[in-house]
Structure formats: C-alpha cells, structure tokens
Structure of Molybdenum cofactor biosynthesis protein:
Amino acid sequence: MSNFVGVNDVLGRELGSLRLSLTSRCNLACPYCQPDGQEPKALLDQAQHLALITASCLLGAQTLRLTGGEPLLCDDLEPLLAAVQRRRSQKTNPLSNLHELALTSNGVLLTAARARSLRQAGLDRITISLDGTDGASVAQMSGLRGGSVAGIKVLDRVLDAIQAARQAGFDPERGDLKLNSVIQRGLNEHQLLPLAALARQQGIELRFIEYMDVGNSNGWKPEAVVTAAEMVQQIEDCWPLEFIGRLPGSTAQSWRYRDGGGLVGVVASISQPFCGDCNRLRITADGTAFTCLFGAQGTSLLPWLVPEPNLDGLIQIMQSLWQQRFDRYSEERLKAESVGMVPTLVEKPAMAYLGG
C-alpha cells in the first residue's frame, strides 16, 4: 500500500475534498444545472470508485461528497457507502483519513426506508436542494411540466424527505442535515425569505447559492445573479444576523440569527470568490477529473482504472494533476468584469456532469 503523500497546487492549496459523481442523470431538470438525461457510456464500478477515493485520501482528502446528477438514482450507492465505511473503521486504511462522508440530493427519492439505509450504510451528512416554497416556484426551478400541481408534488416529497432524514438520525443541530437553495433573479428571488422562514421553522441550516456560470447551456447572465450581499441584507431586514465567518476550504459564509433561529449561509462564488483556499477535486461518473467547477477541460483517469484499477498509477497522475493546478476562474472573471472586459466564451461541461 502506498504511503500518505499530501499535495499542494501551484498556489499552495492542499487537496482536502473529493466530490465524486455517481451519475449524470437526474429526475429533475433545474435550469441552472441543465441535465441532458444522458449517461456516460461507461459508469465506474465499486472497485474503481474505491481506488479513486483511496488515492484521494492518500493525497490528503479528508471529506468525500457523493453527487450526481441525482445520486439516489444510482443502485450501487448503499453498497459503495458500506464499503467506504468498512475501510474508514480500519485504522491502517487510507480511508480512515475521511472525517466526513456526505451526499447531495434533490430529495425527491429520499423515502424513509432510503434515508435509514443510507444512515446504516455509513452516510454522515446529507444536503437537500430546494429552490422554492410554493408549487409554481418549485416547478419553474425544477424544470417541471405541469405547473403548480407538479411543483406541489415535488415540494411535498422534499418536505417528507426532510422529515425522513431527521427520523433516520441525520440531526440538523449537528449539521447532519442541511438545505441548499439557488436564487436566480427573475425566477425565484421572491422565494428568498419564504425559504429562510421554512428553514427556521424546520430548524435546519440553509445555504443560499448565487446563480453560477457553470457550463454554457444554462443561459447565465450577470444581471440574473442575486448577490450574497443582497441576500444577507434581505434576511437581516427581517431577522437580525450575527456574522460567524467562513472556514478555510468552505464554500459558505455563515451567519447566526440573533433570535436563536439557527444558522444561514451564503455561497458567493460570483460576487465574492473563494478560489484562494479552494481544496476540491471533482471526478465525474465516467472517471474524468476536474480541478475547478468552472473548468473547460478535464483529465481522464480511465487509463489507470481500466481494465482494473492501478492505485500507484492513480496516485501519480492525480498528484501531478493537482501540483499543476492553478485554477482561479471566479477571481479572474470578477477581475475582468471590474475593468469592463467581456470573458471569452469557452465550451464548459454542465453542472450535472461535474457534480456541482
């Protein structure tokens, strides 16, 4: 077994988090994500997933987040979680370096039975996405046909999923259960305060996310971004806040409600980029590594995964990839916009492929 070889990139950023996509498919069609319903030709199997996770841990990763598309569409999700958990419990195994095993889901498929099976398999934390509190808003932000009626059905399922996760042992007070909401001007900015009120009522931390220019097919325009500062001000006007800060490597600035109503966060990757301490490596469902969410090109790891995983080879290529990393797209975009430059249009993969 290879030894631990923590690695820094060109800007001194350590590899700390692996975001592993299990599928590009999704049961929703959120416009900011733009899933095309197409699965890569060859999905990775459990042995390949475990090799990627092991290599990442040996290079310094301490958190693993399983994503999609919608990861609950993956039949091998629980077996993979269980295999990771077994290795985490072995002190000499590289996976014992994992401090957190998390998952992001839209919640539609998260039944009570599924929530229990995920918890039993070893999942520590689950984040559920919800972009509205009424049928029309949910339908629009989820890309649903059928208007309010379809939106209400999805909303009810997500609210049931929140309860199912709580009952399965995902405790919001420990941060085991959180909500994510993307806010887009012209579509759902009127839902900001209702979403905050829902999260307060549920006792769950909610993180508002600026509408991001991931990929080229979501029609992103700067004027559609509701900035973190705007969002915080709206919340502050309704419920006074106390600023907590942003942990190194974290995506969210955190705030505490002064009345004891819990926590709220904002992810300001557009208006206040946090490239300087970004520690995330993304690997797609077909084994392509991206060192930036906004990256135009990835590096295929298949030569070291097929016909069977080559752990030492994976470590070498992933170490080399990270050491050459100098991505800071959001900072560069913001700097260019500040002097009136128009960014060059480069073809980029959609968020559903990258795993968000």
Observations:
- DSSP finds ten helices and twelve strands in the chain.
